[in-house]
């Protein structure tokens, strides 16, 4: 059964000549328990897509459905892991996670809450750093806190917007494994936005390419039928993996090249009214005021 769906969704920004149609005719149906990776080009509209699923933004046309009902805003049923950790600098690791837990489980007893928070901090291997502040943590550790925070809210769906792209290869690899382990153990549904095909193959059940924008849309889904648990060094030797990777890469290269050929080289200029040289703001000049001229 589909847990979250996008039906004929389009999204644009701006008005008039500056209007950019970012996403067009997006159809996506994510099944309960599924791990879907959306692989897209830079600037194609990946974050817009996650924001639509989360309810931070709304489509111009089409529908975003959660359990068959229209999404009206963010909710505790969807936990988001952003690219830029978004931690509160004045709170410790423990309290950053607690803030989210307080919001979602207001009636939980303080003992139970403390146990719950520590469980998720432990799950991302941060127990020794529980009382540290974000500035005392490495980028990878901060991202772990944001993973723990999203998971501690116990959402049905994990929405991840390039959560690991800023990390070094080693940290990235270990967090990929951790996220997949927790997803399978806690039986979540996951949507991962990434620009890394290998990351998608390692983590997801399906990879769906997002074509380059403007009017980016979803391409055909590639089923990743490689047995779990997947180990990157082992699957690197796997012929099926190599074939799958080539197919996805070929598709992305082809849509990228086609987009370049057909791209209309019009430049959209901002909607400005010409102003004659002189004072920018009319009014009486005070002695101390500096007058700005073009
Ligand atoms: N709130 C907004 N107002 C105006 N334009 C926006 C807004 N949000 C995004 N855009 C534009 O929409 C396009 C897609 O942006 P989006 O952030 O969704 O893409 P992305 O694929 O996540 O980008 P990146 O790969 O750089 O992270 C970009 O051209 C961006 O400038």
UniProtKB/TrEMBL annotation:
Q: Which residues cross the membrane?
A: none
Q: Which residues does UniProt assign to the signal peptide?
A: none
**Which residue ranges does the record assign to the ABC transporter domain?**
4-237
Xref: Gene3D superfamilies: P-loop containing nucleotide triphosphate hydrolases
Q: What GO MF annotations does this protein's record show?
A: ATP binding
PANTHER family membership: ALIPHATIC SULFONATES IMPORT ATP-BINDING PROTEIN SSUB, TAURINE IMPORT ATP-BINDING PROTEIN-RELATED
Name the chain's protein.
Answer: Nitrate ABC transporter ATP-binding protein
Encoding gene per record: nrtC
